[in-house]
Amino acid sequence: MGSVSRGIQSWLRANRAEVPVEVLDTRGSGHAGLSPAFLLVAAMRAVGLRLGGANLMHVQVSERSSFIRKGVILRLGKALGMHTVLHHHGGEFSSLFPTSSPRMRRWIAATVLAADLNMVLSESMREFLVETIGAAPDRVAVLHNATNDLGYSYEPRRDPSPMRYALVANLAPRKGVSEFLQGLKLLIDKGHDVTATLAGGGAVSRYAAEATQLGIAPRCVFTGWLDRPGVEKVIREADALVLPSHFELVPMVILEAISTGLPVIATPVGAIPEIMTSGRNCILVPPGDVEALAAAMLKLKTEPGVATELSVQGRALYDQKFTMDAYMEKLLAIYEQVLSRPRIGA
Q1: For domain 3-146+324-340, which CATH number applies: 3.40.50.2000, 3.30.300.30, 3.40.50.300, 3.40.50.720?
Q2: Which pTM was predicted?
Q3: What is the pLDDT, as a whole number, of residue 5?
Q4: I want to staple 257 with a disulfide (CB 3.0 to 4.6 A). Which of 55, 129, 241, 292 is the partner?
């Protein structure tokens, strides 16, 4: 169960107990070969929920094989007479779609057009669905992510302690992991006392070997996959979050970080420049620019006043836009809108 579904379920059960909600897992957390079994169980559960009166299916979709599984479950929801919302989270969706096979493109497009509403995380994604896929503009809504409040806990770093940077992500090229390691090396080579925690699964061995080749392995900790308490611990113990991604939508880890007041260095990709302002509540650097990344990392180390201001303004941004209460108010309004209109294909 993803963090978005978990957050929605928890909020509804705590604040709107009269609205029953169930989360269906179509993938599971184990080997991909088991996903058909999870999909079958989810489909059977969906039938039972519909017989019990469920009238809306909210489908979270990413990219690649996720679109196959979620396309199946969405079509089942439509066949059962439920209103459907397709909620897009794939950071590489718009770049992967043109290179997919013709058959896969047809499946994706048909899935998008079958949904009563497509919910996206950025204006650029909205434009892609409308202009490239052909979705009706009034059937696409933008709703940025939100996250539970981890509590403001930022404390300015005090010399002579090392500056602790954290990268929290599934370690892969799209996350800019190599650039992060290279930026860290630039600082270390200039004599700066810095360390890094790279938290997440993915190509851990590859990047650990890269850190060794760069000669910075003693300054790096690779945690591997972490559960939620583990991720929160990394965020709380860091002096700055660094996410130099090449592709993103609205990274949940950025929202979690600003809820604690942790200063953020990121890149202006996806919806990040829509929700963040460089120099006010974050520092944005061009993706792939190692020198700019290193300069931003150094700035937070050598200018504590800048780090503190980013911390305060980041938390203010969270309070203004990214609390679960604000998110759920908007989401429930979207649900009401969907339920008030005829279903597509009905």
Answers
A1: 3.40.50.2000
A2: 0.85
A3: 81
A4: 241
